[in-house]
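Q: Got a minute? One more chain.
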Amino acid sequence: MFELIPITERCWYIESPAKIGLVQLDGDQVCLIDSGNDKDAGRKIRQHLDRNGWKLTAIYNTHSNADHIGGNQYLQRQTGCRIYAPGIEQAFTRTPILEPSFLYGGYPPKDLRHKFLLAQPSDAEPLTPEVLPEGMELIPLPGHFFDMAGFRAPDDVVYLADCLSSRETLEKYRIGFLYDVKAYLETLEMVKGMTARMFVPAHAAATEDIAPLAQYNIDTVLEIAETIRNLCREPKTFEDVLQALFQHYGLSMNFEQYVLVGSTVRSYLAWLKDQGELDARFEDSRMLWETK
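A: Always. Here it is, folded:
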């Protein structure tokens, strides 16, 4: 874990729970794409920098989930690097309590205020194409989170953040976290048509051909949507739907899974309602979801 993997002469990734991109710029200067899940990840990154005589100039965060920004604060304090995050992700990166609060729908209990959902704050600036190094392209990848983005590096290496999950992860957990189902499907269709020298998803193996995995993720989303439609042939509350999905896919409930899967299921319900496939009505002071 945290091994530095070369891709081209200028592009690497650091193997970790969420892959970290590293791109060499001019001379001894490098930038990172994300920073891992905590201070310890930051220390391991720093060891690679010191070992290779590299100077970290910037961290470009793909999005603000804690496992992607957890090393920000340590690395910024140690190196003085600048940190950039796209769109609303900047606010979440500067004020990380927003992530567990958003997931929970209120102020989160202590069970959700830990490093896996609550990173340390860092001084993030707006990520726009203008602040990128020459030859690096910003790729909007909305859907998994609000304004998530990826990058095409100068050597035609594409870092894809969390827009895909591995087959193994989806087969084990089935319901991957996502915020906007419509945007997510559109992103996957776009990614499916991309070409590059190498693709580096944060939670799947690096590959030269991303299309098969993109299609598998699309198929999984559509299968989950169909399962929800079938479950709602009889009117169900959100909690009923969530319980039925956990039982259907053999998932274990805890605080983290309740908010991560629960938030995702609410997004599916909203998307299906907007598609005209589900209806929501109120009865006996409950909201009931029902297939049209």
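A: Residues 237 and 286 are 7 Å apart (CA to CA).
Q: Perfect, thanks.
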